[in-house]
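Something for you to look into today, if you have time. What I am after is a single protein written out in full by you. I want to see for myself how the chain folds. Could you add the entry underneath, on a fresh line?
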Amino acid sequence: MEKSNTDVIIIGAGISGLSCAKRLIKEGIRFLVLEAGQTVGGRIKSDRVDGFILDHGFQVLQTTYPEARSLLDFDALDLKLFSPGVAVRTNGQLFYISDPIRRPQDLWGTLTAPIGTITDRLRILRLFAGNKIKGSKGIFESTDMRTIDFLRSYPFSDRIIERFFRPFFAGVCLDPDLNASSRVFRYLFNIFASGDAALPAKGMGAIPIQLSEGIPANQIRLGASVELIGDDGVTLTNGQKITGRTIVIATEGPETQRLLKLPVKSNSKGERCLYFSAEKPPISSPFLILNGEGKGLINNIAIPTLTAPSYSSSGRHLIAVVVLDHPSMDNESLEHSVRSELRQWFGDPVRNWEHIKTYHIDHALPDQSPPVSNPAMDSGRVRDGVYTCGEYQRIPGIQWALLSGRLTAEQIINENHFM
């Protein structure tokens, strides 16, 4: 079979692999990105279906992510912002909790919503202030524990834990049991409270597309699935051998384990995202809706077209419903059950909602049980000539995927002498 060679082989064209490639370009180091799929982006992709932009699972870009601000052109992405706050369904009603500084018109509703006590609200302010003072480095140096234990020790009331923190963290980390790291929770809570959640006008898939710009087309090979890695390169499933001094694995956790010949342990968190279209949206403002009822399949709901009208070319609204993975349910049963819940939430108009597509994301996020180390200090080196970047043994999310890609590239630059 045909052979080719390069200095660095990057396996995976998700945003961590692309971030690694962008840093190597600056040093003039030869590399080749191998992607098994037909597009760049990994899990961050967007499809166009029936005139709608459908992201592969509901996702947002946080505008305060420092690595995103450094690597991405926000103006070119034409970011559209969600309202600063959330709508929480509890006691059969929707209650809106907003940032009182950015949305003072919602102050009274925020104060009177039956989500928690006045003391809880004061503790949230104290938590936010403490997180700001500590900063990212301080948060990841703080004592780590399960998030549920951290919240109870603060101490927040059971009401606000069940009606706000649990659905919030389930939506962000797919962890309704709140067993994930308190460091992760504190970092994410600080990020959400400090900036805006946004959607690119052309969908989340615009992010990896923008990252890939500037990388020569002949240095990204799509449809190239790696069968195994060796001492001097990789072998593709078609038998082709590609030699390289250094290999970077930038794939999902289970695939990374397979390539490293480790036992494949899938601790990933899965989700299903059901997309519907409707003539009228169920709410009028661009808030993320959390399920604070403590029951039901639905975890959270978003209406992307209230934030970014460009997600629809027909004027109809797009509704994204996220369900934490239920592998025992087929698509038809899941849609029927979810639609039944939606009717309880929003009434008979739901009968006229049209189902567009359901996405299964098996490895949406990796396990984040404590202790979790500072991702800015992690080493990507596995052994001589082999590195990992991305989610494997790290914190997931756009910020950390981009950062790990850059840091891995810089580690390669420092540890190797390329001509």
Q: What stands out?
A: DSSP finds 13 helices and 20 strands in the chain.
